Amino acid sequence: MSQYRIREVAELLGVSDDTARRWADGGALPATRDDAGRLVVDGAALAAFAVEHPGAAAPDATRVARSARNRFAGLVTRVVADGVMAQVEMQCGPHRVVSLMSREAAEELGLRPGSRATAVVKATTVVVETPAGERA
């Protein structure tokens, strides 16, 4: 299971290291110590906390140039998979992003609550609707 150090927690939640440390020290953010004595937060617990306390979106750390401009770095908060498809929910700062993909893709990516991921949105279609019966 993923564990995040306080610096990573702060980055993912869009707050300072000091704020994340205060939340952990105060018990608001469940944290433990790793084998080296560093303060860490379990990924699933962090995902649940992120849903309850959405903040600023985390920066994309990949440093790869892409044509897609709408990139949302965050944490996977929920994965619902059936025989063929998977619904993956993410908390990316204040934004909740939902993606539908094949179950195989979700498994290959290792997506589970607490996983770090980036949602990349590249849309070429915009659907416009009008109220029924109001045509010119």
What are the defining features of this structure?
single chain, 136 residues, alpha+beta, OB fold (Dihydrolipoamide Acetyltransferase, E2P), four-stranded antiparallel beta sheet, 7 strands, 25% helix
Task: Tell me briefly what this model is.
It contains four helices and seven strands. The chain is α+β, with helices and mostly antiparallel strands.
What does the model show?
Among the domains are: 3-43; 70-120, OB fold (Dihydrolipoamide Acetyltransferase, E2P) (Beta Barrel), CATH 2.40.50. Helix 1 packs across helix 2. A 4-stranded antiparallel sheet has the order 6-5-4-7. Strands 1-3-2 form a 3-stranded antiparallel sheet. The mean pLDDT is 85. The protein has 4 helices and 7 strands; from the N terminus they run E-H-H-E-E-H-E-E-E-H-E. With 136 residues, it is α+β, with helices and mostly antiparallel strands. The protein is globular, with a radius of gyration of 18 Å.
Topology (elements, then pairings):
Elements: E1 3-5, H1 6-13, H2 17-25, E2 32-33, E3 39-42, H3 43-52, E4 70-81, E5 85-92, E6 95-102, H4 103-109, E7 116-121
Antiparallel strand pairs: 1-3, 2-3, 4-5, 4-7, 5-6
Helix pairs in contact: 1-2
